[in-house]
Amino acid sequence: MTNPLYDALFGIHARKTTPFLRLLDGQVITHMDFLATSAQIANVMTQIGLRPGDRVAVQVEKSPESLMLYAACAQAGLIFLPLNTAYTVDELSYFIENSGASLIVCGSKSKEKLGDLAKKFNVEIETLDADGGGTLMALAALMPMSFATVDRQGNDLAALLYTSGTTGRSKGAMLTQNNLLSNAQTLAKEWRFTSKDILLHALPIFHTHGLFVAINVTLVAGSSMIFMPRFDLDQIVSQVSEATTMMGVPTFYTRLLNDERFTKDLVAHMRLFVSGSAPLLSETHVQFEKRTGHRILERYGMTETNMNTSNPYEGERRARTVGFPLPGIEIKITNPDTGGTVPNGQVGQIEVRGPNVFKGYWGMPKKTAAELREDGFFITGDLGKIDEDGYIQIIGRNKDLIISGGYNIYPKEIELILDGQPDVLESAVIGVPHPDFGETVLGVIVPENGVTPDTDAIMETVRHSLARFKHPRKLLILEELPRNTMGKVQKNILRKQFQGMFAH
């Protein structure tokens, strides 16, 4: 039997006693031990009745066991659905119902809150904690350390990742085995990853960057990782001398640059620093190179496509660009109205085609048809241009997506809550520049009948309804919102008006 993703990422290492995960307490988990435990988890999931193609919704803290669960899903032919640990129960309800998940895996502390959801949708629920405790691992300990890998094809789904637009419902991006595997193989080759590399991993693994880029590239190359629960400045400084590569969001690099311990000598042995998930400021590029002698490699990707472009490993890594299309991937810049390709140097919408492009949106054939052309090109929703040397520049978004600290934030979701509050007539949510997070959320409120809304009470409601990273950094009260002649709110005017609010 064959299972392309499992075989190439995991199965190839099944008998290797080489290090895979290096933990902060000094523990080292070998490839063989990692896969023996993941096989036990696969046995648990099949024994509770899961079948190939079933969805497994996972909202747990980062741990070796949470990564083993990903491997177990691949081996058992299950569709892995990672969910942000900050999501509230209200947010999770939609994902569970829409995906038709057969199993929820959550932290022990969340089981009571999510138990009602599990009953409502008739879903199995198991727990997994950051220390490896919980019902899932207790059951796994009783299982055999081998599992017959389920036969899968390259076009079968491997993962379901939810993304969103500025309007409408969240969309489940269907990622196939070929989508994930082709991208990992391409990136490992382009970025020169080998079995000798040690990746410093401080990213979350419910996100494309930390999971399908960092983890899959490490696996396909047979590398190892210093596996950190989260970004911690002191721990990064203490561990970086043991690594050869690091992947991060811009916030990681700005925080490192603000620490005097982060010196050229400290990272002299490092081979590569990669940045993504949000635009890297030119100033950060310059400061980082001046401080360390390294030029950060910036790339461009998204949930629906994994990685599309990369600055070159060898050659000029140009600030304010995301480099060139990866091998086997086509990028074109088109006129949003006509769909025709525009000349180099002209701004248009970015479209991408290649083996990395997703299969479509779960249960949304009309939305899929609107964004995924019949010829295979995906309309990304991003605006960009290609310069005279072929470098791709991301100019902005034709949707009002906010990217703060690497997380996608959708204004409409926040506006719906603000609009429903007492004494609020309407609201607009925008992203404004922030020196640490790239962008941060700013909420603008128009009051009803001249009454001043209680912004503290409104923020309290927001805190109970939305994950922390979505909370507005500030709420402003304006008499009215700027509009064009058609009555549409002109958010570009608001962004310009408040762009310097958080600069320092």
The overall strand count is: 25
Strand order of the largest sheet: 2-1-10-9-11-12-13-14-15
Question: Radius of gyration, rounded?
Answer: 23 Å
Distance separating the two termini: 58 Å
Averaged pLDDT: 92
Report the principal-axis shape.
Answer: globular
Q: Low-confidence stretches at least 5 residues in length (pLDDT < 50)?
A: none
Query: Which percent band covers the strand fraction?
Result: 15-25%
User: What is the number of helical segments per DSSP (H or I, 4+ residues)?
Assistant: 15
Helix content percent band: 25-40%
Q: Which structural class fits the helix and strand makeup? A: alpha/beta
User: Major β-sheet, in short?
Assistant: 9 strands, mixed
List the helices and strands and how they pair.
Elements: H1 4-9, E1 19-22, E2 28-30, H2 31-47, E3 55-59, H3 64-76, E4 79-82, H4 89-99, E5 103-106, H5 111-120, E6 124-127, H6 135-140, E7 157-163, E8 171-176, H7 177-190, E9 198-201, H8 208-221, E10 224-227, H9 233-239, E11 245-248, H10 250-257, E12 272-275, H11 282-292, E13 297-302, E14 306-310, E15 324-325, E16 330-334, E17 348-353, E18 360-361, H12 365-371, E19 378-386, E20 392-397, E21 402-404, E22 407-409, H13 411-419, E23 424-434, E24 438-447, H14 455-465, E25 474-477, H15 491-497
Parallel strand pairs: 1-10, 3-4, 3-5, 5-6, 9-10, 9-11, 11-12, 12-13, 24-25
Antiparallel strand pairs: 1-2, 7-8, 8-18, 13-14, 14-15, 16-17, 17-19, 19-20, 21-22, 23-24
Helix pairs in contact: 2-3, 7-8, 10-11
